Amino acid sequence: MSKKIVVLGAGTGGTIVANNLRRHLPADWEITIIDRDDDHLYQPGLLFVPFGLSSTKKLVKSRKKYIIPGINFVIDEITRIDPEKQQVTTKNHTFNYDFLVISTGCRIAPEENDGLLDTWNKTAFSFYYLDAAEQLRKKLKEFDGGKIVMNVAELPFKCPVAPIEFVFLTDWYLKSRGIRNKCEIEYVTPLPGAFTKPKASAVFTESAKEKNVKITTGFELNMVNGKEKYIESVQGDKVNYDLLVIVPTTIGDKVISDSGIDDGIGYVPTHHNTLKALKHERIYVIGDATNVPTSKAGSVAHYEADVVVFNIMAEIHGVKPEEIYDGHSTCFIVYSKGTSSLIDFNYRIEPLPGKYPMPKLGPFTLLHETKMNWYGKLGFEPLYWNVLLAGRHLGAPPTLVMAGKHVG
Ligand SMILES: Cc1cc2nc3c(=O)[nH]c(=O)nc-3n(C[C@H](O)[C@H](O)[C@H](O)COP(=O)(O)OP(=O)(O)OC[C@H]3O[C@@H](n4cnc5c(N)ncnc54)[C@H](O)[C@@H]3O)c2cc1C
C-alpha cells in the first residue's frame, strides 16, 4: 500500500516542502499538494506596485509550473483537517495522510477593524494583495499633497518590514514627483518601535528621522473613521490622515479555526524548534500558518522547509524529530528606488551589522543602506522562481550563521 503525504497550501512554504520531499522519497510515497487556485503570487513584489516599480501581471505565475513531476497538485478549497482520522476534506474530495504539512499562510481581515470596510479603497488602502496594491497605485498617482498615514492594526502581521519599506519608498516617490514639501508621512504601529527587534528599530528610526517620517508607536487600532479621516486607538488617541494605508488585522486561514486546531487567532500551535504541531502527531506546520515567534516572511518559510523535510524523513526512518529551527529570518528593507538595507536574525540574536553571506566579502551589508543590497532585492525575484521554489538552496544551512556579523 502506498504511503501518503498531504501538503495544504501551494504558496512559498508548501511548494518548497512538496518539491523537496519528492526528491527525497521513493515513488511508493504519494505526495499531494492542495491549493484553492493555480495563481502563485510573488508577495514581496506587492510593495513595488503602488509606486509603479512592478506590475501586477508580472507577479503571478502558474503554481503547476513550479511543482515538480511526481506530485499530485489538486485545485480545491480545503474545508476540514481531522488529526484523529488523519484525514483532510476539501469541497470535492477526502484525502488520508500518513504525514500532513500545514502551509495555509495567513490573510488580512479588514472586516475585523471597525469602520474600515466603509472606507476601503476610498480613503483607506492597502498593498497586501494584488487588487489592493493596484488601487493604491492609482490613488498615489493622483495624490497631490497632504498627510499619508501607514498604520498596522494589530500584531502579529505579515512581513514586519513591509510598512517601514512603504513609508521610505513613499518619501522617495513623493520627492521624485517634486511634491514632498507638500506632504507629511507618519507610520503608526502597535509595536514599541519601528520594528519587532529593538536594535534594528533604533537604526530604522534614525533613517525615518532623516527622511522626515514621523513614527508613532504603541498605537492599538480601535476604529477607522473614513468620513472625518482619522484613526483612533484603544486608548482614545487620534491620528488624522488624508490617505490611510493600512495592514488590517491579520489572521490564519479559516480552515485552521474551523478544524479547532488553532490558537484562537487562526494559527497552529507549533513547536518552535521541530516545527511539529504541538498537540498532534504526524502534523508539521510551516510559514505564516505557525504561531512561532519569528517574522511571518518567505525567508522563514524557506528555512523552515528544510527543517520540516528533515524531520519528516527522520520520523519515516523511526527517529525522533530534531530541534533544529532557531527562528532564522532574512529580509531586505528597501530605503528608496536604488538602495536597500538587509537584516539577518533569529529567536535570540537581533539583527547585527556586518557582511552577508560571506564574511568581509559580502557582497551584501547588514543593517546598512547600500546599492548592492538593492540589487540583491531585485535579484531575489528570479532566484525565488527559479531556485528556491524548486526546493534548492544555496548551500546555506537553515539556521543563523554568525560569521561576518559584528557583535558588540
Ligand atoms: C506586501 C508583502 C511584502 C512581503 N515582502 C517579503 C519580503 O520582502 N521577504 C520575505 O521573506 N517575505 C515577504 N513577504 C511575506 C511572504 O510572502 C510570506 O511570508 C510567505 O509567502 C509565506 O509563505 P506561506 O507558504 O506560509 O504562505 P503563502 O505563500 O501565503 O501560501 C499559503 C497558500 O495556502 C493557500 N490556502 C490557504 N487556505 C486555503 C484553503 N482553505 N484551501 C485551499 N488553499 C488554501 C493559499 O491560497 C496560498 O496559496 C511579504 C508579504 C507581503 C504581503
Task: Give structural attributes.
alpha/beta; five-stranded parallel β-sheet; globular; binds flavin-adenine dinucleotide; single chain; 7 helices; FAD/NAD(P)-binding domain; about 400 residues; 3 domains
Assign an overall shape: globular
Helix content: 10-25%
Tell me the distance between the termini: 57 Å
Which molecules are bound in this entry?
A: flavin-adenine dinucleotide
Unreliable residue stretches: none
Spatial ordering of strands, largest sheet: 5-2-1-9-20
| Rounded Rg | 21 Å
Total strand segments: 24
Biggest beta sheet attributes: 5 strands, parallel
Structural class: alpha/beta
Overview of this structure, please?
The protein has 408 residues and is α/β, with parallel strands linked by helices. The chain folds into three domains: 171 residues, FAD/NAD(P)-binding domain, CATH 3.50.50; 141 residues, FAD/NAD(P)-binding domain (3-Layer(bba) Sandwich); 59 residues, no CATH class. The chain has seven helices and 24 strands. Helix 1 runs parallel beside helix 6. It is globular, with a radius of gyration of 21 Å. Flavin-adenine dinucleotide binds next to helix 1, strand 2, helix 6 and strand 21. The site of flavin-adenine dinucleotide has 35 residues, from helix 1, strand 2, helix 6 and strand 21.
